[in-house]
Structure formats: structure tokens, C-alpha cells
Amino acid sequence: SILVLVRETRHPILPSRGLRPALRLLPLSFRRYTLAVLIFGCGDFSHTLLILYASTSLAPAYQQASGIIAIALYTLHNVLYAAGAYPVGVMADRLGKNSFLVGAYLLAVLMNIVLVAAIPSVATLIIVFALAGAAYAAQQSLERAIAADLLPDTIRSTGFGVLAAANGVGDFVSSAIVGVLWTQFSPTVAFAFALIVTLVGAGFTAVTLFRRSGR
After folding, report:
1. Is residue 31 classed exposed, middle or buried when 0-12, 13-18 and 19+ CB atoms within 10 A define those classes?
2. Cβ contacts of residue 151 below 8 Å, gap of 6+?
3. pTM of this prediction?
4. Which of the 8 DSSP states describes residue 118?
5. How distant is the alpha carbon of residue 31 from its chain centre?
6. Which residues of the chain have pLDDT under 70?
7. How many CA atoms lie within 13 Å of 173's alpha carbon, on the beta-carbon side?
8. Which of 6, 72, 116, 195 is deepest in the core (most CB within 10 A)?
């Protein structure tokens, strides 16, 4: 049935470009957007660190069960991420991708506020993991979608590569710095760093996207 019913759309073959010429063609609006994503990413540490935080902070009260609780909380995170990505994308298409992405970044900021200010408990950690999963679902749905809106078809793949590189650099920087601050000082200091950087990144993203859209 695939051979009979499916018809492939033909596209013209575009001439290949070198990397540098292709990068020069990236629109200024996309470059600013990528910088905003990079700044935010430098505070958006790997959420697997939350497992370590949950298990260590709950250990005095729950002992060996703290590890099981931490894994259960991360399962909640992944369920919210998997279940939330599609509806977030649908709502963002209707109501505006820019606002939803900034909102997702602010959820990450709120998560860091809870990590810094709240006393660790199962209840507060449920909030933390729920915020993390919801924020991650929206980020994964919207960052590439907004990039696609900013990029012409002829260099879209190059732009996606640049965005992926920015995300990779941000993930490495944030997780490395948070890990060092955690080891040398405390988790609170590490999460305070993440809070400041993600707040700056969310603000820069809002200014970049809303200035472009004229709102």
C-alpha cells in the first residue's frame, strides 16, 4: 500500500555551500534568538542532577527508600515531558509560540526558586520535578519551531545545526558549573547560579522575541 498510495513531493536540488558562507546567511533575528537560547541554556542544568538532589536530601528521613523515591519523581518528570510536548505544541500554534517558550523558561526559573528557597521534602520535590518536566516539554516543542519561523528554507538545516550546537554548549556549561558549585559549596549555591542565569536568559529571550513580533 505504501508503494501505491504514497507519493513523494519533489523538491529542487539546492547547490551546496560551505559552512562559513551558510553561517553568514543566517538572519540577524535568528542569531539573536540563538544567543538567547544559549544564555538560558548556560543555567539550564541536566535534570538528572535532580535525582541526586532528591536522593541525598531525602536520605536522612527515608534512608534507603530515598533512592526509590528519587527515581519515582524522575519518572513523573518523564511522563509529564512525554505527555506534554504534543498539547503544548498545539496550543502554542494557536496562541503564540513566543509567549509559550518564554513561559516555559519562566517555569524553569520557578523550579530553581523552589530549589533555592524551599525546605526539601517529598511535596516540594514533586513540585520541582513537575515544573522541570513541564518546562522541558515546552522547550523541546518550541525552540526548533520558533527557529523554523526565523529561517529561510534554503538554510534551515544549517540553522537547526547551529541551534543544536548552542543547546549542547549550554547543557555542558550549565551542568559543569552547577556540579562544581555543588561540590565546592552546596546545592543551594549551585541552584542559585542556575536561577540567576535562567532568569537572565528568559528575560533576554522575551526581549528578543517580542521585539521581533512587535509586541
Report:
1. middle
2. 26, 27, 30, 159, 160
3. 0.86
4. S
5. 18
6. 1-22, 212-215
7. 17
8. 195
Grid cell locating 184: 565546592
Q: Determine contact, residues 138/107, Cβ cutoff 8 Å.
A: yes
Cell output for 89: 505544541
Grid cell locating 109: 526559573
Cell 540553522 belongs to 159
Measured CA to CA in angstroms, residue 122 lies from 20, 53, 57, 70, 127 at distances of: 50, 12, 10, 9, 9
Percent of the chain whose pLDDT exceeds 90: 70
Q: What are the Cα distances from residue 123, in Å, to 58, 63, 96, 118, 127?
A: 11, 17, 32, 10, 7
Length of the chain: 215
Among candidate residues 168, 155, 183, the one with its CA nearest the CA of residue 53: 183
